[in-house]
Design goal:
Blueprint lengths: L1 H28 L7 H15 L9 H25 L15 H12 L9 H4 L2 H31 L9 H26 L10 E11 L10 E3 L4 E4 L2 E2 L4 E8 L4 H10 L20 H25 L3 H28 L2 H4 L24 H14 L14 H12 L10 H21 L4 E2 L2 E2 L2 H26 L12 H16 L14 H30 L16 H25 L1 H9 L1
Antiparallel strand pairs: 1-5, 2-3, 3-4, 6-7
Length: 604
């Protein structure tokens, strides 16, 4: 019963917080006064003055696009160089060397595209300067870029016979100063209060309360008898050769809370620690877990209500929200049921007790005992619905169908709320596709929010919808025939294929999470995954801005009796159907070779 309450409570709190935040974001993006305006507007104006930005500029969609690409390109180059040179720069108390070029490219592409795929362990690879000046800055500006592009699209729907979509530089400034900074300041303080570390100290080595014995392969010897003085390890009186006695533990330090806050609210996902939010110093307890988990979908959910208020049609925002929310609930239910029931192999011959009597039960493999199945499954659904990628459990250890639900959420294009900004403009591309198909069915020119949807918008909308499947399938297809990729798999057969497919799904969906059994730090994987991230991030942005520019130049068409309603239950159903149809057609063969084959193999 407690688990059921948790599954209901988490989404309910999310929606309650998202509604007022959506109203606040709408005011910010329209330049209206808010309760923070007296404090933040002078800071905003100071930035315009220093950067010589024209606050009233109205960029065409092409100029807006060029601004996005140049800004992101500069960020990519700067972060790449910062990693290469970190060994010679300050802010590096552990004296970490510069990052190798292919990993530096992969990481730069990852954080600039709001993906935050990590083929490295943060606490042992990147200096504090790189984490703060490189990664944390990109966490802010890559998230702001997604919201800015969405804002331009919203103006495309609102404006009538105009060329301009606003200024990218104004949008970026407002988003960072009025939305991301104050929100993340509050969340950072909550996390620090909950026990998340925030300091500039070097990593420490501390003594263990009790020594631990490990085998030559690094596995902990549970029933070992340790004689520290003699330096011997025995099990049942038999000496274990090559066993090592561990008496100390490496404890990472650093400015974690400030990066963790924006990694969640900006749907970035890159962990300060290698194991992300499963680490007790990054996510120590149920309170911090709740704050971090809600933060993942807070802005993406709020933007649905921002959209409805901005186009002066709140029902339209609610309809888009409901389509996303229903998909999320279905995915969450699939993950939760499969993890609570566990895989048949666990219960085979009574080897593992999977009952929930006086214990968590189900499939606890790869999950933290301080969170359990409910909080882990909810986090897994939230992080793969958003293009977030942070984890508090290891997705590689989930059941075949539980893992498939997470993978499919990413493969749908991260439009079930998705990343900040990009999730909603991706879903609006699907909405344009839906009204076009519905218009063909009834023999009418399709319309959406009073604007005719014509071949120009359809071509770009289709590219936006198909960019993720192209990146995922092309990337994973090439990787499947590269012999060196096999060395990165920790499993063979169907599960090994799932590990590789998930990696390219995560990159192509700009998600960033991984099946933990996949070691991706090779030249081929770093470059190919990096290129997949860039393709899947910027092609949809260009397409969205092209659609926005075209819509802004159109006149409004009055609704008639024959106009297709885009706010009722039928439209919500059609929208979900189109999203799932494209996902099923694109990925069913690949899923059949991976998680589905693994599932049916487990029950055979």
């Amino acid at each position: 019963m407690m688990a059921v309450i948790q599954y209901i409570l988490y989404p309910a709190i999310l929606v309650l917080l998202a509604v007022p935040l959506g109203a606040y974001i709408k005011k910010v993006m329209n330049g209206e006064k808010t309760f923070l305006s007296k404090i933040l507007t002078p800071c905003e104006n100071l930035v315009y003055k220093m950067m010589k930005v024209d606050k009233e500029e109205q960029m065409t969609w092409k100029k807006y696009t060029v601004s996005v690409l140049i800004f992101s390109g500069i960020g990519l180059f700067f972060l790449f160089l910062l990693q290469l040179l970190q060994g010679a720069l300050p802010g590096n108390p552990q004296k970490l060397p510069g990052v190798k070029w292919d990993l530096a490219f992969n990481t730069a592409a990852s954080f600039v595209t709001n993906t935050n795929w990590q083929a490295y362990s943060g606490e042992s690879t990147l200096s504090y300067l790189t984490q703060a000046l490189g990664l944390t800055v990109q966490n802010f500006v890559s998230a702001a870029t997604g919201i800015a592009v969405l804002s331009a699209l919203i103006r495309g729907f609102v404006k009538i016979k105009e060329q301009g979509l606003g200024s990218f530089w104004v949008d970026m400034t407002r988003i960072v100063i009025h939305i991301l900074l104050p929100l993340n300041l509050v969340i950072s303080l909550l996390l620090v209060g909950g026990g998340v570390i925030q300091n500039l100290k070097g990593a420490k080595t501390v003594p263990l309360l009790e020594p631990v014995a490990v085998s030559a392969e690094g596995e902990i010897l549970e029933d070992a008898v340790i004689d520290e003085k003699a330096g011997t390890v025995t099990i049942g009186g038999v000496l274990v050769p090559d066993a090592e006695i561990i008496t100390e533990q490496f404890v990472p330090m650093g400015p974690a809370a400030s990066q963790i806050a924006v990694k969640q609210t900006g749907t970035n996902g890159g962990g300060f620690m290698g194991v992300n939010s499963a680490h007790p110093l990054e996510n120590p307890n149920a309170f911090t877990n709740l704050i971090e988990m809600l933060s993942i979908l807070l802005i993406p959910t709020a933007l649905c209500f921002t959209f409805g208020a901005s186009v002066k049609n709140k029902k339209q925002g609610i309809a888009i929200f409901m389509a996303m929310f229903i998909c999320l609930v279905i995915a969450l239910g699939t993950i939760a049921v499969n993890e609570q029931m566990a895989a048949p192999q666990l219960a085979q011959n009574g080897e593992v007790n999977i009952s929930a009597l006086d214990q968590a039960g189900g499939n606890m493999e790869g999950k933290e005992t301080r969170f359990g199945i409910a909080a882990s499954s909810t986090w897994a659904a939230f992080t793969t619905a958003a293009s977030n990628g942070s984890v508090n459990s290891m997705h590689d250890s989930y059941t075949p169908l539980g893992g498939m639900a997470m993978m499919l959420l990413i493969q749908l294009g991260e439009v079930v709320f998705g990343g900040v900004g990009c999730g909603l403009y991706g879903m609006l591309a699907f909405a344009i596709l839906t009204v076009f198909i519905a218009g063909l069915m009834v023999g009418r020119t399709p319309e959406f929010l009073g604007k005719k949807i014509e071949p120009y918008e359809m071509k770009w909308a289709v590219l936006v919808c198909l960019a993720t499947p192209i990146a995922i399938l092309a990337g994973s297809g090439m990787a499947a025939v590269v012999p060196s990729v096999l060395g990165s798999l920790h499993n063979d057969g169907a599960h090994g294929f799932s590990e590789m497919l998930y990696a390219y799904s995560s990159a192509g969906g700009n998600n960033g999470s991984a099946f933990a059994g996949f070691s991706a730090d090779t030249v081929f994987l770093n470059i190919s995954l990096g290129l997949s991230m860039l393709f899947a991030r910027f092609l949809p942005m260009v397409g969205t801005l092209a659609v926005a520019g075209s819509l802004a130049q159109k006149k409004k068409i009055a609704a008639t009796v024959g106009t297709l309603s885009t706010t009722n239950a039928m439209f919500v159903f059609l929208l979900i159907f189109i999203v799932l149809l494209i996902g099923a057609l694109s990925f069913f063969p690949a899923l059949a070779l991976g998680p589905l084959a693994e599932y049916f193999g487990s029950i055979a």
